[in-house]
From TrEMBL:
The keyword Transport applies. Keywords: Ion transport, Iron, Iron transport, Membrane, Transmembrane, Transmembrane helix, Transport, Vacuole. This is Uncharacterized protein. It comes from Taxus chinensis. It is a multi-pass membrane protein. It catalyses: Fe(2+)(in) = Fe(2+)(out). One of its GO terms (cellular component) is vacuolar membrane. One of its GO terms (biological process) is iron ion transport.
Amino acid sequence: VETMELKRMMKEFGRGGGILEASPHSKPQNTSVAITMSSSPKVVQAERNIDYQHRGQWLRAAMLGANQGVVTTASLMMGVGAEESETKSMVLSALAAVVAGTCSMAIGEFVSVQTQHDVDLAGLKREKKLKKTLHGFEHSTHITLPNPIEAACTSALAFSMGALAPLLSVAFINHYIIRVGVLAGLSSLAL
């Protein structure tokens, strides 16, 4: 259940009174809550579900970082390789792109996820009014907030790994036309 949807359901529950039944088997980590309301006794039941949101955070950062690593490094290497230059200059420019891109992706991902974390945390603080009403519910669930450091590290590592594909594909090819062709082909396959 998305955070906004969960908040909406909790507000509806708070207005209607009723009983909250939290699953006694739910773990405080990696769980989300599905809330259902019955019409007659106004009973809200919380069911334990696996929370894929946490996994999705690092997976999104990894996919974005890897794709960005392939595209950025391959594009720069093709630009340098368009002129009849040595393999050494292509490899050095690719290494510079890897360092710059890794830093850029890590910082960008950190800022993005930290902002999302702050927004989610502010929303949770606004829900303090529900603590008394949802006392049993509070202890049986864990709302996963995004981790900016984890996302930054994942993105940086994925960018570096993605950048290695075009870098290693041409590092040992001397003829520039073949080098650029191999670079374009293998980078396309890597995506």
